[in-house]
Design a protein that fits this description.
The chain has four domains: 140 residues, Beta Polymerase, domain 2 (2-Layer Sandwich); 86 residues, Orthogonal Bundle (Hydrophobic Seed Protein), CATH 1.10.110; 107 residues; 54 residues. The longest helix is centred in the last third of the chain and has 16 residues. 36% of the residues are buried. The chain has 21 helices and twelve strands. Helix 12 runs antiparallel to helix 13. With 423 residues, it is α+β, with helices and mostly antiparallel strands.
């Protein structure tokens, strides 16, 4: 499709601050367009805050034109410009790729928006909108593909994926998010280059996953990951049979979208062991705190749910799960029940019993025992490894009978159980 034939007129709702930035650049003689995901989403009727602009101005000119700018990625031609609404918008000079190794590209500045659009990954992302003239430039048929719900690479698919292997995961995510069919040539090239995903850094793989679980229905993209064999490359620790996989991704969908990390943990419950999960979290460059939380929740999720009518069993379950993890563990179990089509009413009774008991604050940890090592020494016992065994035994008794948690009753129990009757 020629550039002339690709021009259409359509008024999109663009933030006033973006229009003002474009007008200032245009008044200075620099052609400027809105580009990227915001244009795509606006055409789909979706709202988006992060509008990006592409301009003929070079970064130094952009920085001279605007008073409040930030060097977001000057080496790649991008300058952050603070708009009148206080939001920082990315303004990037027209670019074209000169060389690439599949992870990063060597670029040079271009003179036209057509050149800039030609370097983009998929046709749906290669549409530009002029916020002053209300002009849509679509040289690769992206608008048609949006209407038909087809994901198609710009130009030669294999070339697009060779330029940046992350585009493989991006393509799977876009197709899942917008419920698209991947065009056959694009799908073939994508699958052919899936083995190259091993060259991506853990950070880039992780960031894609975070975007997937932020979508309303992550299962669509995750199913594409599996169908393209990308799952085996980027998450080899997750290997489950088809039937179990269907339940797993349904559970990921059922976990709250507002808690994306829980969706990740739900997916990672399929990892075979805690050691494997720890290594996986390290490889994906999650923080130590995130790794610890994932390990805690995976272990807690594996603990069998108690009979809600058995108060002692409920307290024991709370003790094994840990009070800090209870609420998130309940959320994970709720998602699991929904994912397998289980009895949510029956689970609700378990959840109510657990949360009601938790609010009663029964003693569930060694720190909450009415005695400690000092009490055992005062009682005449010699410090040593046995102290831990005695205190754990006392905690078990207290979990069974919270009324036991007094100094007098516990020391009496220690006397009878560990030292024999006195007197």
């Amino acid at each position: 499709m020629s550039g002339r034939a690709a021009i259409a007129h359509l008024k999109l709702s663009v933030p006033k601050a973006v229009v003002e930035i474009a007008r200032k650049l245009e008044d200075a003689g620099f052609e400027t367009w809105c580009v990227g995901g915001a244009v795509r989403d606006a055409l789909l009727g979706l709202r988006r805050a992060d509008w990006d602009l592409a301009t003929a101005a070079r970064p130094d000119r952009v920085r001279r034109l605007f008073r409040r700018t930030y060097p977001i990625g000057v080496e790649f031609g991008t300058v952050g410009v603070r708009g009148g609404d206080g939001v920082v918008y990315e303004v990037t000079s027209f670019r074209r790729d000169m060389a690439t190794d599949g992870r990063r590209a060597v670029i040079e500045y271009a003179d036209t928006i057509e050149e800039d659009l030609a370097r983009r990954d998929f046709t749906i992302n290669a549409i530009a909108y002029h916020p002053l003239r209300h002009e849509l430039k679509d040289p690769f048929g992206g608008l048609r593909d949006l209407e038909r719900r087809v994901l198609r690479a710009v130009g030669h698919p294999l070339t697009r994926f060779e330029e940046d292997y992350l585009r493989i995961l991006r393509g799977l995510r876009f197709a899942g998010r917008f419920d698209m069919t991947i065009e056959p040539g694009t799908w073939t090239a994508l699958r052919e280059r899936v083995p190259r995903l091993v060259r991506l850094s853990g950070e880039r793989v992780r960031e894609e996953l975070l975007k997937v679980v932020a979508d309303p229905q992550p299962s669509r993209a995750l199913n594409l990951y599996r169908g393209a064999s990308a799952l085996l490359v980027v998450y080899p620790e997750i290997q489950v049979p088809d039937e179990e996989w269907e339940r797993l991704v349904a559970a990921v969908d059922a976990a709250r979208r507002s808690r994306p990390f829980l969706r990740i943990v739900m997916l990672f419950t399929a990892v075979s062991s805690l050691d494997a999960l720890e290594e996986m979290m390290r490889r994906l460059r999650f923080s130590n705190a995130e790794s610890d939380r994932a390990l805690t929740l995976k272990a807690a999720h594996a603990v069998d749910l108690p009979d809600p009518s058995d108060a002692r069993a409920v307290r024991r379950w709370l003790g094994r799960v840990g009070t800090e993890a209870v609420r998130d563990t309940v959320r994970l179990h709720a998602a699991s029940v929904r994912g397998r089509g289980g009895d949510i009413a029956a689970f609700a009774r378990v959840a109510r019993a657990a949360l009601t008991t938790l609010r009663q604050r029964p003693p569930l940890t060694l720190a909450e025992l009415a005695i400690d090592g000092d009490d055992l020494k005062e009682f005449g016992l010699q410090p040593g490894p046995q102290f831990a065994e005695i205190l754990k035994d006392c905690l078990e008794r207290v979990i069974d009978d919270p009324g036991m948690n007094t100094r007098e009753r516990l020391l009496q129990y220690v006397s009878e159980r560990w030292t024999g009757p006195r007197g």
